[in-house]
Amino acid sequence: xxxxxxxxxxxxxxxxxxxxxxxxxxxxxxxxxxxxxxxxxxxxxxxxxxxxxxxxxxxxxxxxxxxxxxxxxxxxxxxxxxxxxxxxxxxxxxxxxxxxxxxxxxxxxxxxxxxxxxxxxxxxxxxxxxxxxxxxxxxxxxxxxxxxxxxxxxxxxxxxxxxxxxxxxxxxxxxxxxxxxxxxxxxxxxxxxxxxxxxxxxxxxxxxxxxxxxxxxxxxxxxxxxxxxxxxxxxxxxxxxxxxxxxxxxxxxxxxxxxxxxxxxxxxxxxxxxxxxxxxxxxxxxxxxxxxxxxxxxxxxxxxxxxxxxxxxxxxxxxxxxxxxxxxxxxxxxxxxxxxxxxxxxxxxxxxxxxxxxxxxxxxxxxxxxxxxxxxxxxxxxxxxxxxxxxxxxx
Length: 395
Ligand SMILES: *Cc1c(COP(=O)(O)O)cnc(C)c1O
Fold this sequence. Notes:
Aspartate Aminotransferase, domain 2, Aspartate Aminotransferase, domain 1, 7-stranded mixed sheet, 3-stranded antiparallel sheet, 41% helix, 13% strand, binds pyridoxal-5'-phosphate
């Protein structure tokens, strides 16, 4: 079975599992226990993980707050800022291509009386920083733009957007779940004040994440969304998941060490895959900017077919997805591709290939073979493909 769905989740690196193991039984301490060695060593392990994660994104270790994942981090960042900055204003700005976690947290902001402007992106999936500049009002509190898109891999012009936010005096939050650990990310260089991270998107365990919150120029305030034992300065209380956090830290360390090599290896695979599929098959289109894109992601539309049909026909040997794992239960075309202005047919014809650390060259070659034969055979009986060949423009 070939796994090309790394954007949905990554396997936990065996080195990460190894680092986590002692923290289940041998070192069982609660970092909040201040009276004995078990507690102290657990706190040291947390400090170490903060240091490793901060090092990966150019932050200060004290700026890392642990959560259960990027969904919680997006919610904590958006709703926490909304509550804290009500006196300043209640207007938020985001994009139509954001992850469901950001979209739904923004809907909640509206339910709580705030206003949200959802900005369009171009056909390439990129937002124009000037569009953001024009959308900022006197009562705008925060702009939320994901670093890299989970469905297309498109990387936004972060530094330019950060520049606009700085000049206009608004906060800048970014969902970094797909970018961190895969490409160089520096929150200070990009002017990002809050960022959501997820361990399981970068070879760490599931159920662990972090929110980076800038502590200096500006010092960002966050109102807690949960209440309890006062851990993490009360911003996100609850006993810390020590083994998970240790694994997250180790995953960050490995990512930093292997990033440049992996970027090169995986972009090579991606280029081979795209080249092969677009040459051996007619009417296969790349969705999203080809130049500003994660090295390991390819989103392709196979005209005349539904992505779901290809996926199903290959499912015995190949694990792929049509887009976000979080919304794959709905029959509607991807909100990301729709927001990019792609037509309904092209959006439904899309498949996302996302490779990663354990992908091999042999697996890429086999995937090319499999997709090529499957698409050819499905097209042979597709009325839509016949229409397309007769020159009919598909909606
Ligand atoms: C996976 C993902 C999330 C959700 O992260 P969890 O840790 O699974 O909650 C949020 N945003 C993006 C861009 C993602 O890819």
